[in-house]
């Protein structure tokens, strides 16, 4: 069994490495996001333990890059941020599990074993609603077969709307989940982004998919 640990804190990296080595794993350690991704892409690991706060590129970025080519790679996130929004973000960004720091090695070991027992998970690689399609591996969205030219934030917003189609999403929730920020009632960042997204996703088409619930938020659904 091979395991990759991406962790910049020497103490944590050392105790995790020693722990897994004692468990009989072959352990590689990377200490920044760039190195971590390089090893993840070139090595063949049974599991990756990935810290979120890393130098050069952070764990979210590394995870996103890994998922583009390896949707089934088991990844467990280490986070010092004991916040619900970060946990949710971790799991919706494609992590299989997460662990909040500080943690006992026995806990990490149990979770990694659990992932390995579960085997590869087939992840949805394509999100779809009506004639709207999003290919997560190729990072491409189309409507009625026509490519949508989306800025990164618009892509993430559309992905979130698609994952929760038919559900009313408040501005607060969108701000937290798509922008990772606390929504302040005066901010119009969500509305501005939705407007831009609509121009691309809805304006050229007769059937509108993104709807406003005045004073509440937005919903992606087909209405007659
Ligand atoms: Ca760190």
Q: What is the molecular shape?
A: elongated
Distance between the termini: 54 Å
In percent, how much strand structure appears in the residues? 15-25%
What's the CATH architecture of the largest domain?
3-Layer(aba) Sandwich
Biggest β-sheet strands, sense, barrel: 5 strands, parallel
Radius of gyration: 19 Å
Under CATH at level 1, the class of the largest domain stands as: Alpha Beta
**Average pLDDT figure:** 88
Bound heterogens, unique:
calcium ion
Unreliably modeled segments: none
Q: What is the count of DSSP helices, taking H or I runs of 4+ residues? A: 8
SSE order, one letter for each helix or strand: EHEHEHEHEHEEEEHEHHEE
The count of domains is 2
Query: What's the arrangement of strands in the largest beta sheet?
Result: 2-1-3-4-5
Structure classification = alpha/beta
CATH fold call of the largest domain? Rossmann fold
Binned, the helix content reads 40-55%
Core attributes:
224 residues; alpha/beta; Arc Repressor Mutant, subunit A; 2 domains; five-stranded parallel sheet; four-stranded antiparallel sheet; 12 strands; elongated; binds calcium ion
What does this structure look like?
There is one protein chain. This protein is α/β, with parallel strands linked by helices and 224 residues long. The protein has two domains: 2-117, Rossmann fold (3-Layer(aba) Sandwich); 126-220, Arc Repressor Mutant, subunit A (Orthogonal Bundle), CATH 1.10.10.10. The protein has eight helices and twelve strands. It has helices at residues 10-22, 33-42, 59-69, 84-92, 105-118, 152-163, 171-178, 189-201, and strands at 2-6, 26-30, 47-51, 75-79, 97-100, 126-129, 132-135, 140-143, 146-148, 169-170, 210-213, 217-220. The strands form three sheets. Strands 2-1-3-4-5 form a five-stranded parallel β-sheet, with helices on both faces. A four-stranded antiparallel β-sheet has the order 6-7-8-9, covered by helices on one side. Strands 10-12-11 form a three-stranded antiparallel β-sheet. The longest helix has 14 residues, at 105-118. The protein binds calcium ion (CA). Residues 8-9, 51, 53-54 line the site of calcium ion.
């Amino acid at each position: 069994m091979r395991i990759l640990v991406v962790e910049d804190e020497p103490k944590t990296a050392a105790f995790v490495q020693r722990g897994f080595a004692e468990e009989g794993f072959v352990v590689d350690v990377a200490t920044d996001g760039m190195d971590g991704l390089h090893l993840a892409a070139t090595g063949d690991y049974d599991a990756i333990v990935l810290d979120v706060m890393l130098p050069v590129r952070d764990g979210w970025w590394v995870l996103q890059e890994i998922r583009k080519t390896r949707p089934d790679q088991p990844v467990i996130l280490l986070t010092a941020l004991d916040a619900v929004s970060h946990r949710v973000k971790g799991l919706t960004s494609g992590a299989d599990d997460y662990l909040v720091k500080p943690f006992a090695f026995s806990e990490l070991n149990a979770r990694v074993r659990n992932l390995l027992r579960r085997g590869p998970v087939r992840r949805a690689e394509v999100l779809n609603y009506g004639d709207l399609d999003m290919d997560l591996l190729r990072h491409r969205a189309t409507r009625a077969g026509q490519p949508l030219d989306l800025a990164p934030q618009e892509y993430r917003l559309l992905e979130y709307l698609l994952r929760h189609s038919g559900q009313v999403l408040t501005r607060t929730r969108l701000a937290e989940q798509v922008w990772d920020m606390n929504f302040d009632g005066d901010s119009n960042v969500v509305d501005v982004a939705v407007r831009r997204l609509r121009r691309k996703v809805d304006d050229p088409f007769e059937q509108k998919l993104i709807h406003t619930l005045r004073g509440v938020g937005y919903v992606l659904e087909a209405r007659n």
